[in-house]
Amino acid sequence: MVKDPVCGMEVDEKSTPHVSNYKGAAFYFCSAADKTKFESNPESYLKANGESAPKEDRHGQLTGDNKKVAKWVSDELGLDEYFAEVLPDQKAAKIKEVQSRGLVVAMTGDGINDAPALVQADVGIAIGAGTDVAVETADIILVKSNPQDVVAMIKLAKATYRKMVQNLVWATGYNAIAMPLAAGVLFSFGILLSPAMGAVLMSVSTIVVAINARLLKTSGIRATLNTQN
Q1: What 3-state class would DSSP assign to 3?
Q2: Are 113 and 65 in contact (CB under 8 A)?
Q3: pLDDT tens-digit profile of 136-164?
C-alpha cells in the first residue's frame, strides 16, 4: 500500500489503474480526478506532503545568444532551463549561481570565453577541437569532439561508481568473515585457517574484485575520453 499524494488515502499500487510518472518515479491515486490534479502541479502536492521530487540529471544552456534563440534551442532539445544573453565575463558567475542551489555542475565548452566557467564548474568538459585555453582548463576532453560523448561519460562514471560500491561491500564482508577465522575465533571447534590457506583466500578476494571490475567492459558504454589530471 502507498499513499495518494493528493487525498492522502492508502492505495493498493498493484490494483489501482490511476498511475502517473514524474521524474522517473511512479505515483498512485485513488481516482482519475486525483491523478489529474497531481499532474497539473506535482511539485505543490509533493511539498505539501513533505516530500521532494526524485533527484535526476538536469540539463541547461548557457549562451550569449538572445532569449528568443536560446528558448527555441532549449525547447528543441528538451532542456530544463537556459541562460541567454550572458556576457563572457558572466559565465562563471552563472555557474556559481547554479551551484548555490546545491547542484553539482558539469559544463561543456570550447571557447576562450568558456575557460573561467570550465574552471568554476565541478567538472569542466572541453571539446577536443576547441581552443587551447579551454582544453587546458578542462578536467575532461572529448577527443572526438562529439557532444554526445558527454552522455556516455556520465553513464561510465555511474557504472564505475556502482562497481566501486560492489567491490567495497564484497571486500568488507569477505574480510569480516575470513580474518576472524584466520585469528582462531573458531579454534575451540577445531576450525583454524593455516597461513597458506589464508593467503589463498586473500588471493581469491583480490581475483573476485578484479573480475568484477573487468565486467565494466560489458556495460556497452563506448566513448573515447581523455582525462587530464
Answers
A1: strand
A2: no
A3: 888 888 888 888 888 888 888 888 888 89
